[in-house]
Amino acid sequence: MTTTTKGEEEEESEQVVTPWDVSAGADGKIDYTKLVREFGCSEIDENLIERIERCTKTKAHPFLRRGLFFAHRELDEIVSAYEKGEKFYLYTGRGPSSESLHLGHLVPFQFTKWLQDAFKVPLVIQLTDDEKFLWKDLQLEDCRRLARENAKDIAACGFNPETTFIFADASYMCSSFYVNMVKIAKCVTFNQAKGIFGFTGDSNIGQIGFPPVQAAPSFPDCFPHMFGMNKKSLKCLIPCAIDQDPYFRMTRDVSHRIGGYKPALVESRFFPALKGESGKMSASDPTSAIYVTDTAKEIKNKINKHAFSGGGATIEEQRENGANLEVDVPWKWLNFFLEDDEKLKEIGEKYGSGEMLTGEIKQILVDVLTPMVEEHQKRRALVTDEVLDVYFNPTKTPKVFLDLFREYEEKEFGKWEKKKGGGDSENDDLCAALEEKMKLEGATENEEGCAIGAPKSEDWLRIRKERMQRDAPTEGSKSALKKAAKIKAAAEKKAAEKAAKAAARGEAAT
Ligand code: TRP
Q: What is its EC number (predicted)?
């Protein structure tokens, strides 16, 4: 995008934000308001956060409350649909270019984990080993190995292995994925790609061809084992840092033309580097970041020696003027990782006014980060190759679409007991419930090779929408009453069973 008009847009050194290059403007800061305006996304407001809390019955994550995830595209539409009972899936990813992750890398995954738990939806995680091979001076074999190593750190964030699919491009690439890629690719000219990504004649053609690889997972039929073969079976929500926006702007531009929904986005600010905010942290300078592999001693040293401080140069100056919170890295990092709102507020007031010294806020940060990193290391040690294989398995069993939304279905049908191990009678049960559901939805049988119960035709969605409108509780229609009675009966049955069990246990004890 070039502007020929002279005026406020023209600065000495413009900030540059692309998926591969983030550099601040002349004042050393990223102007997020300007970014939102340029990219054409929207800021997340209080009202939207409240709606999310209401429909998930969950307090918003600190990243959301504190405006660290601050921008979106059509997140409000995802929430509106969710309020009416429609589910979606989450898609995020990582380019595996380093052996271990730093704290900034954890941010989108911690947030995605919260989204998954709050909305109770499935998740796909893309590891772009191909992207890193094409852009970095790395062998493909190393990128593939790093993808698997990084996946251990990602899994250690606590994703539900039953509803989370992690894949590396070079390993997963399959027909359904490729079909989406070529369809997307055909919609984007080289000139458009140059405009969006800044490709030049020197870019290798793998790079130029890469954007459809990152775009494709925005469509559920890339994952037939999870979502079935219908490109419109589910909407997609993508949590990411705002530098990934160009990929998904492109995706949203072509969505309708290839017959899919536009993916929605929820986007974060950049995690400030230890040595001061000017975009991303540098992997080539180990003191510019704290890694999830760092020891307690390293964490303490790095923060004390390298964390950029907005405090006064001397104790007297700090006492006199207080700290400049705008540039202070310990303060910024506490905003990410200190959960207690009250405590954070108090620290901000005391440090900002000079009552608290730089050494003190640094110590608080050390005390917050050390247990967090140690916890992570413990959880990572538990991610064995077998555990990882469960996440990477592209033929998850049971291959049942509705299983991904078990809680929702339980509520609707009261039939969805937790099924594990899978005996025949359990399977019969499951199939019966599915059949009933499909009959109710007016769906027909599924094609071979796709998740059982996954919606197949676009009719299915139309039928479902009509059903939802018809069944809106306010209308008090026959079917809504019937459904309510069914839900009530199921809940009562469950409660009675629970009470009976508790009583039996009580008797045994006395
Ligand atoms: N390109 C991203 C990176 O280099 C990785 C990625 C792939 C991603 N798909 C994504 C990030 C979806 C966010 C959302 O880190």
A: 6.1.1.2
Mutate to test the pocket of ligand 1, among 128, 237, 265 (most ligand atoms within 8 A of CB): 128
Considering the entire predicted model, what is its pTM?
Answer: 0.83
Question: What is the CB neighbour count within 10 angstroms for residue 164?
Answer: 22
> Which atom of ligand 1 is closest in space to residue 240's alpha carbon?
13
Return the CATH number of 286-381, one of 2.60.120.970, 1.20.120.910, 1.50.10.20, 1.10.240.10.
Answer: 1.10.240.10
**16-268 topology per CATH:** Rossmann fold (3.40.50)
Burial 86-109 (b: 16+ CB within 10 A, else e): bbbbbbbbbbbbbeebbbbbbbbb
Q: pLDDT class for 11, splitting at 50, 70, 90?
A: very low
As for ligand 1, residues whose beta carbon falls within 6 Å of it are: 19, 91-95, 126, 128, 131, 214, 238, 240, 244
By the 10 Å C-beta count (0-12 exposed, 13-18 middle, 19+ buried), 251 is classed as buried
User: Which pLDDT score is estimated for 249?
Assistant: 96
Please tell me the distance between residue 87's alpha carbon and the centre of ligand 1 in angstroms. Answer: 23
Q: Tell me the domain boundaries of the chain.
A: 16-268, 286-381, 401-505
State what percent of residues in the chain have pLDDT above 70.
78
pLDDT band at residue 398 under the 50/70/90 scheme: very low
